[in-house]
Specification:
This protein is an alpha+beta fold. It has nine helices and 20 strands. It has helices at about 60-75, 115-135, 185, 195-210, 220-225, 235-245, 255-270, 280-305, 365-370; strands spanning about 1-5, 20, 25-35, 40-45, 50-60, 85-95, 95-105, 140, 150, 155-160, 165, 175, 380, 385, 395-400, 405-415, 415-420, 425-430, 435-440, 445-454. The strands form six sheets. A six-stranded antiparallel beta sheet has the order 2-3-4-5-7-6. A four-stranded antiparallel beta sheet has the order 13-20-19-18, with no helix packed on it. It has a four-stranded antiparallel beta sheet with strand order 14-15-16-17, covered by helices on one side. Helix 2 (about 115-135) runs antiparallel to helix 4 (about 195-210) and helix 2 (about 115-135) runs antiparallel to helix 7. The longest helix is centred in the middle third of the chain and has 27 residues, at about 280-305. The two termini are about 25 Å apart.
């Protein structure tokens, strides 16, 4: 775990060992290890008063005590939630420090577990329910990961370790996180937000299904700061498309915890998600769909009359470069494909007749496999559509504009959309885990691009 803004205090001198009894009540049994640093100890213990096993978490210096007290307040806000390990109480001594007394959950953590997408979605949906409640009280967990989720005897998930909790009220304090599971804004020590937890929850799902976080094993900190993710091929199509939205670098493009819970419950049940499951994506799809309809009407009239009808008021809408998403901005996904003239299947709806601007035929699907290593070059023009059928979380890619200086590309799936605009030589991060490299610009309305995972 990485910490920032750490301020050390005087350490508590009182050492404890296995078999000691603290507060005339708790018999220490096994030391589970330190928390995020050596100033925090975690023990299993037996509560002689209540005759039950408990977990004791001890803070030994001023900073650790401050963090544990903040964690205790957060856990109190979640009292009686079925998917949070219950805080039974706290104890404090000038000799041994500050202690949390927490419910002992016997099933162990999710760390190193490998399960089906449905089972992973079930557990993650339960944790999403916790996040919904936590976010309503203006708190962010900041460190959701498999080792911080434990299982009951009935194999239900419970969230633990609120030491990294961050208040949205701007009170400041330490930001702690695990790079493999951290959102970009957290890794940059920027302001964590509720959707930062959604990113970490998606990374947890990915780890449970693929066995690794959605980041390369080398330099995870650098990748976290850049917002880069790599969605493993072992993730099935539908969950992969869900992850593409939840792992977006821009937090505004991720669903909130309530939306994540709904989609995870559908995945857990083996169901298919409807188009536009995120309201913001659905609104953008409707908006761009209306523009596409107007473009289609303009194109038909242009073909019939030999030119644009009412050129001043009914010109075919053109893609606006300022609405195209670059990495970290708000992309506007293209509308679903509309029928195009048979003579030019890839021509843009509303574009001039094929005799004026010729769009190349879309490449065959069998040729696209080689594009994903960045070596296959595909010639495209405005309006070219490439069907990917869910590979790397993308259903379809649309080239929305080709100018002498740049290419504008959009992509979408059932779960969201994205886009990018850039010059020759630039690789565009179109969606989480998916990019388009602009190889060259032809100057005649065409370009050469390559599709690849990021």
């Amino acid at each position: 775990m990485v910490q920032g803004d750490a301020v050390e205090g005087d350490a508590v001198e009182g050492n404890v060992v296995k078999g000691d009894e603290v507060f005339d009540r708790y018999e220490l049994r096994e030391k589970l290890g330190a928390g995020s640093d050596t100033a925090v100890e975690v023990w299993t213990a037996f509560d002689r008063v209540m005759a039950r096993d408990v977990v004791l978490k001890r803070g030994r210096d001023e900073r650790a005590i401050r963090r544990l007290k903040a964690a205790s307040r957060a856990m109190a806000e979640l009292k009686d939630h079925p998917h949070v390990a219950e805080l039974y109480g706290t104890e404090e001594s000038p000799v041994t420090g500050f202690w949390q007394v927490i419910e002992h959950v016997p099933g162990g953590s999710l760390e190193l577990r490998l399960v089906s997408p449905e089972q992973a979605a079930r557990w993650c949906a339960q944790i999403a329910a916790v996040l919904v409640r936590l976010h309503t009280v203006q708190l962010v967990h900041c460190d959701v990961k498999p080792s911080n989720v434990v299982l009951t005897a009935e194999e239900n998930a419970k969230l633990i370790d609120f030491d990294s909790v961050c208040s949205l009220s701007g009170d400041g304090g330490t930001i702690s996180f695990t790079p493999e599971f951290a959102a970009r804004e957290v890794a940059r020590y920027s302001a964590p937000c509720p959707r930062s937890d959604v990113f970490s929850l998606a990374a947890t799902f990915h780890t449970l299904v693929a066995g690794t976080p959605p980041r390369l094993s080398h330099s995870p900190r650098s990748q976290a700061e850049q917002g880069r993710v790599v969605i493993d091929d072992r993730i099935p199509r539908r969950p992969r498309r869900m992850l593409a939205a939840m792992l977006a670098a821009d937090p505004e493009l991720r669903p909130d915890a309530a939306g994540a819970r709904r989609v995870l419950e559908r995945v857990a049940a083996g169901g298919r998600l409807p188009l536009g499951w995120r309201p913001d994506v659905r609104r953008r799809l409707l908006r761009t769909g209306a523009v596409a309809v107007l473009s289609a009407l303009s194109g038909v009239l242009s073909l019939l009359l030999g030119g644009p009808w009412n050129e001043e008021t009914a010109r075919s809408p053109e893609p606006r470069e300022d609405t195209a998403a670059t990495s970290g901005s708000d992309p506007t996904p293209s509308a679903p494909p509309l029928p195009t003239p048979a003579a030019s299947p890839s021509a843009s709806v509303g574009s001039p007749p094929p005799s004026t601007v010729e769009s190349p035929d879309p490449p065959e699907l069998s040729r696209l496999d080689a594009c994903f290593d960045g070596t296959c070059e595909v010639t495209v023009a405005e309006g070219t559509r490439i069907q990917l059928d869910g590979r790397y979380g993308v259903d379809e890619v649309l080239v929305t504009a080709v100018t002498p200086t740049s290419v504008n590309v959009s992509a979408w799936s059932d779960y969201g959309g994205g886009g990018g605009i850039g010059p020759a030589g630039q690789t565009l991060t179109v969606m989480a885990g998916f990019g388009v490299r602009v190889v060259s610009l032809g100057g005649d309305g065409t370009a050469v691009i390559a599709l690849m995972p990021l």
